[in-house]
Design goal:
With about 350 residues, the chain is of the alpha+beta class. It has helices at about 5-10, 30-40, 60-65, 110-120, 145-155, 200-210, 220-230, 235, 240-245, 250, 265-270; strands at about 15-20, 20-25, 40-45, 50-55, 75-85, 90-95, 100-105, 130, 135-140, 165-170, 175-180, 190-195, 215, 255-260, 260-265, 275-280, 290-295, 295-310, 315-320, 330-335, 335-345. It is built from eleven helices and 21 strands. The chain is globular.
Length: about 350
């Protein structure tokens, strides 16, 4: 569940389950809220799972099982993937070095299996792994005025830079950590981390003190990230081989991709992609999994689709054959009918920042 259900309810929130965690769906009029975030700033409670890794060997252990190097310095972070022995994505995560511990922000659906699996594999190393999802409040602040918003309430340091670095300060009486995001919404962005006991006060300050921010939920998160061209775990990443997606982060790994002590072939993970993630603007809104066709042959599938408030119509992300010509006429299946779909260069919307996960070949 969220750590501040009552406060969300006071703002008129409706809720939904995502990955086994209760999150805010919206507060009413999500399309209008979307535009408010694009024009200024908004705040959302993030539905992460949080895993804490402690012990003298914490950096070495996590570094050995994820795709990118775990930062050795306090105040630094990385975006990384966890792969299974076949090289398929089991999870994505942000890994932050917080001094005496690592904080891993993961999809909530993978926390139990990750903690159990990693704990089983710890032998002589000094590593302790636990689920800390209920210990923290994590709030995203996004929009072209996100930096001004954070600066207006944060006491102590200035807003952090570059992406995935963080600073410690306070908002009111609450101690907070503020992380510069990798711009998943296509706008300037930060995440504010606090103790769960302080979450209500911190969220209230983010909305109402200094520069105001609009509260938003995951329906608006979906439209913002789709317009930005950001692949997400549940829709684009889970169970897929990274290079089959043509993802920028997947092809810029800083090392070979390790699964325990077993190295997955660099050819498999860095070779030529078999498919690519592209943007489509269909005439009607398809469902996730809808077939994408060219000349009556299936050439791919929709991973997710939304009505894009900043675009003014349906947009979709789709995995299609890598060699598919850019100018070929495409259709998508919409309730058994073929709707024309125009290819669009990602991102659909140029905001105040570009997502670091923008597909390389989109």
């Amino acid at each position: 569940m969220t750590v501040i259900d009552d406060l969300h309810a006071d703002h008129g929130a409706t809720f939904e389950e995502r990955g086994g965690r209760r999150v805010v769906r919206h507060y009413g009029r999500p399309e209008r809220t979307h535009k408010a975030v694009r024009n200024a700033a908004g705040a959302v409670e993030m539905g992460y799972g949080v895993v804490v890794v402690e012990g003298d060997d914490r950096v070495e252990y996590v570094d050995n099982v994820v795709t990118n190097r775990v930062p050795s310095g306090d105040g630094e972070g990385r975006y990384a993937l966890l792969l299974d022995p076949q090289g398929r994505i089991e999870s994505d995560m942000y890994v932050y070095n917080a001094g005496e511990r690592l904080l891993l922000f993961t999809p909530p659906s993978v926390v139990d299996s990750l903690v159990a699996d990693w704990s089983e594999k710890v032998f002589i190393q000094d590593v302790r792994i636990r689920d800390a999802s209920d210990d923290f409040g994590v709030f995203g602040v996004h929009g072209p005025k996100a930096t001004e918003k954070v600066a207006s309430v944060l006491t102590g340091p200035g807003a952090p830079e570059p992406a995935l670095t963080f600073v410690r300060g306070s908002i009111g009486d609450a101690g907070v950590t503020v992380v510069a995001t990798d711009a998943p919404t296509g706008e300037e962005g930060y995440e504010v981390v606090c103790a769960a006991a302080d979450a209500a006060d911190v969220f209230d300050a983010l909305l109402n003190y200094g520069l105001n921010a609009v509260p938003f939920g995951y329906r608006t998160w979906d439209t913002l990230t789709t317009e930005a061209g950001t692949p997400l775990f549940e829709t684009e990443l889970r169970g897929r081989i990274p290079n089959a997606l043509g993802l920028r982060t997947a092809l810029d790994f800083e090392k070979g991709c390790y699964v325990g002590q077993e190295v997955v072939s660099k050819v498999e993970n860095r070779g030529r992609p078999s498919r690519r993630l592209v943007g489509l603007a269909p005439d009607a809104l398809p469902e996730s999994g809808a077939a994408v066709s060219a000349a009556e042959s299936t050439v791919g599938e929709v991973t997710r689709a939304v009505d894009g408030p900043s675009v003014g119509g349906p947009i979709a992300l789709a995995l299609v054959e890598f060699d598919l010509a850019d100018d070929v006429a495409l259709t998508v299946d919409v309730e058994g009918n073929e709707a024309p779909a125009e290819r669009r260069t990602l991102p659909f919307v140029e905001g105040s920042a570009r997502t670091a996960r923008l597909p390389r070949y989109g």
